[in-house]
Amino acid sequence: xxxxxxxKLTANxxxxxxxxxxxxxSEIHRLFKEYRKIVNELIEYAxxxxxxxxxxxxxxxxxxxxxxxxxxxxxxxxxxxKYAASIYESFIELKxxxxxxxxxxxxxxxxxxxxxxxxxxxxxxxxxxxxxHGGRWVTLRLLHGRYHDxxxxxxxxxxxxxxxxxxxLYLNVVFRQTIVLPEINTDAKVIAVDVNENVIAYGxxxxxxxxxxxxGIIRTRYFLKRRKIQTKIRGRGLRARLLGKYKxxxxxxxxxxxxxxxxxxxxxxxxAGATVIIMEDLNVYKEDKxxxxxxxxIHRWGYRRFQRxxxxxxxxxxxxxxxxDPAYTSSLCPICxxxxxxxxxxRRLRKxxxxxxxxxxxAIAVKNLTKRYYEECMDAKTLKPLLxxxxx
Length: 392
Ligand SMILES: [Zn+2]
Hints:
Blueprint: E1 4-15, H1 22-49, H2 54-68, H3 74-96, E2 111-114, E3 119-122, E4 127-131, E5 137-145, E6 155-163, E7 169-180, E8 190-195, E9 199-203, E10 208-212, H4 215-232, H5 236-272, E11 276-280, H6 283-286, H7 300-316, E12 320-324, E13 340-342, E14 349-352, E15 358-360, H8 361-383
Parallel strand pairs: 8-11, 11-12
Antiparallel strand pairs: 1-5, 1-7, 2-6, 3-4, 4-5, 6-7, 8-9, 9-10, 13-14, 14-15
């Protein structure tokens, strides 16, 4: 059986508030105000009764809130219960980890969660209708958004109405699609991806390509910028704002790099007829926090984000993704399995005394990851028939 996966895509539409009529805007603002009150009341209730599940919260408060807000479409109360439960649940998680000092969470009311009964989307006409008080609908014009052909065959999911600090309004719509992915087996042609601080290498036993990401250089530059702010700016508020600004800028730059790399790897995979992308299973490093193999190579956090982007994009393009055990993939010979030696003449060059192989670290890692993929597929087939291949 071919593996099946559900994929979500979000399209963000900016809503035209300039040409919208005033009655419509005031209806929307009223919606935000009431929704905020309701969610905060639900959080308060969840907090005082120790409730973290949507079902219990809904059971306890739905009927009462329906009576107190009779003209508000009832589905808003349902999504408010879901929202409050999820906010409270993540608050509890943060609290457990000691990362939150607040007594209880407060919902700022910048977002209204819409299920499929609360909005209609006319993408061709660039319009959206939102359910408001008294069973009425407010129709708004959509200005722009990342809507493209890819969404056309997809199923409409839920949406978020978001009011930003600058007063602009967005409708973020989730689209869903079920994709059938190619199988993970020994017949598959693969592309292995090896991530380093400034270079991402990918390929298989037939070829290898390298892309310079310069991620380490970008990170160092922003690190120095932040350190300068920390020492030179006295005002705490300004300092925090500047640090936040640069942090955001750094991430946007790196994310752009990641997306570009993912795009190139996917198009190369298609060109080479590969159907599976192989990456390192970083969970292996979890047990060994000081792993020399991972440290000094790339920021762990960034690495995971890159993997997530590549996995998502790959699946969207009909490629499967498999994570393999990365242990020793840069220190053992991919041909004979012997330990490699670092060459004195080239910094990245490694040599195998036994079989004479001499290649750079990236090529070795790519070949070893490729090899490991086939080994793990064989193991799954012959030795461990109960192990699900492809399930992470
Ligand atoms: Zn060898």
